[in-house]
Amino acid sequence: MTSSRHALLDNATHRDLTVASGAGAQWGDGVMGCLVVPSEFRAVAAHYPIVFRRDGQTGRFAPLALFGFEQGENLFLHQDRWDAAYVPLAHAVQPFLIGRTRHEDDVPQVHIDLAHARVGAPAGQRLFDETGAPTPYLAAKAEQLGALDAGWRDTAAFLDALERHDLLEPFTLEVPLAEGSTRSLVGYHIIAEDRLAALDGAALGDLNAQGYLLPIYMAVAALGRFPDLMARRGRG
User: Fold this and answer.
1) How far apart are CA 36 and CA 159, in angstroms?
2) Alpha-carbon gap, residue 69 to 66, rounded angstroms
3) Which of 159, 167, 182, 207 could form a disulfide with 212 if both were Cys (CB 3.0 to 4.6 A apart)?
């Protein structure tokens, strides 16, 4: 397991710190997928399949964007290039993360994982300028962190609504391999389209009033990205 070393980011301690901003397996981009939040489902669905995975310990579901079909496989990563116009927030913000105090109303703070491979790269982006002010790069990351934090705050209620209406069902996909065999993608759930179509007007109205219908339909549409993902694997 990769170790981490989180610290509150400040312009004195981290005045000269740099962070690699490019793509590459050496920066931690060689991953099968990442968590996503409903507020970004429209952007995610343009490039990646969206599935749901149940945590074996908590029993809670979490939405994921898939980049590949097995651990360590990112079919969007081509050496130093990420072949998609959008990178999901939870991955794009690395090595930064939100830090919170014990008081829920306090302003979230920007933390950094000093053990992350991107931190300290010689040709990386500076986080603070000569005056100690945040650089445009850090400002953009802080904005992404804010969007991710707001999205996570809304995700639990969204997932509760999916379970309340029984809108998640197990999903299995057979992935063809180069030598002619197949690999089964298992352990995930997707939106149950037949149950969604069978919802009555009251249920649909409730989901729409809460702003959940759009991300639900985006999650359904995102399943159409699986053929592209398989084609990427076939191209090797």
Assistant:
1) 12
2) 7
3) 207
What is the b/e burial string over 112-146, where b = at least 16 CB atoms within 10 angstroms of the residue's CB? bbbebbbbebeebbbbbeeeeebeeebeebbebbe
Q: Look at residue 1 and tell me if it is in a domain.
A: no
Please state the separation of Cα 170 from the chain's center in Å: 20
Q: Is residue 39 part of a domain?
A: yes
Query: What digits encode the pLDDT tens for the residues 8-28?
Result: 999 999 999 999 999 999 999
pTM of the model: 0.91
Q: Is 63 within a domain?
A: yes
Contact 6, 113 (CB under 8 A): yes
Calculate mean pLDDT across residues 93-115: 83
Is residue 121 included in any domain, yes or no?
A: yes
